[in-house]
Amino acid sequence: MLKGRLGLETARIPQADRHGLLWLGRGNLTVEDGTLRFTSAGDIDLAPGEYLIPFQMVSCVLLGPGTTISHDALRLLARHGTGLIITGEGGVRLYASMPFGPDDSALARKQATLWSDSGQRMRLVRRMYAWRLGEVVPDTDLDSLRGLEGARMRETYKLLARQFGIDWAGRHYDRSNPEHDDLPNQAINHAATAVEAAAMVAVAVVGALPQLGFIHEDSGISLCLDIADLYRHSITLPVAFGAVREFRRDPRGAKTIESMTRKLAGRTFRKEKLISKMIDHIKELFADDSSGDP
After folding, report:
1. For domain 2-87, which CATH number applies: 3.10.410.10, 2.60.120.200, 3.100.10.20, 1.10.357.10?
2. pTM of the model
3. Is the pLDDT of residue 231 over 50?
4. Given the DSSP bridges, would you call strands 60-63 and 21-24 parallel, antiparallel or unpaired?
């Protein structure tokens, strides 16, 4: 009776990955006979129909555009500690989340311990720069590592722009008037915002502290910015330059460069399982072993 009540026998929605993340879009999430029921209008991942969800086997439900959720469903998720995150298409925005991470503070306490120790903190900084640069980095101060990474990224911008057939005049960003930037820089801004949102989702899922970053310090989502930067060369720039290439092929189309970048980002995130990779990187970053050290 309990097994059927939880919907385990008839559940047909596959979990997106081994982390137990369930992506739902374009439908209604309600409760029927004590079980979560998703009425799907149909999207690229799920055919139209009625689906029972074994919520106790899912660590987090991610609701995308076109979804509604009942108060009873929120109550059921909260009671059983199943996370809920409201996102943009493919995780390109984070709008709300509950509960605030898993019911386990171990990772957050480990993060705070490492963050408060200057030596351990620098070890993690070097680990992240080693991941970003793909090589062992020198045992030096943060400003020197930033300079090293900056020089490398300038060459990466040029290389990727050439691969995508984009004219590149350098990276610049006018915070007071971002729409004044040239098309490639606008696209980079939009792609970076999307990747940062994906990092916010990953940080929320694992229950880490977004304020305690190791390379970034001032932002309220400093850790999210640290994690997002790990994917600048592999996700952010290819999405941005790919969007510019698509836009220029159809400049009179209905989409803006922001819309085109966001759509391409969402498709890329799902294809590359970006949020899953971010979750793994966060866990590896705070792991006790030293296998990831430079």
Report:
1. 3.100.10.20
2. 0.85
3. yes
4. parallel
Domain assignments of the chain as residue spans, ordered by start: 2-87, 106-285
Residues 6+ apart with CB under 8 A from 64: 23, 24, 25, 26, 87, 88, 89, 90
153 and 232 in contact (C-beta within 8 Å)? yes
3-class secondary structure, 254: coil
Residues 158-186 pLDDT 10s: 999 999 999 998 888 776 666 667 899 99
Which residues 6+ apart lie within 8 Å of 127 measured at CB? 285, 292, 293, 294
Helix axes 274-285, 118-133, angle to 10 degrees: 140
pLDDT at 71 over 80: yes
Least confidently predicted of 4-8, 49-53, 122-126, 253-257: 4-8
Q: Under a CB-based contact definition with an 8 Å cutoff, are residues 248 and 240 in contact?
A: no
Nearest CA to 192 out of 216, 159, 165 is that of 216
Side by side, the strands of the sheet bearing 49-53 are 49-53, 35-40, 27-32, 67-69
First-to-final CA distance of the chain: 53
For 147-261, list the strands marked E by DSSP: none
Question: What is the per-residue burial (b if ≥16 Cβ within 10 Å, else e) of 128-160?
Answer: bbbbbbeeebeeeeeeebeeebeeebeeebeeb
**Residue with more model confidence, 24 or 291:** 24
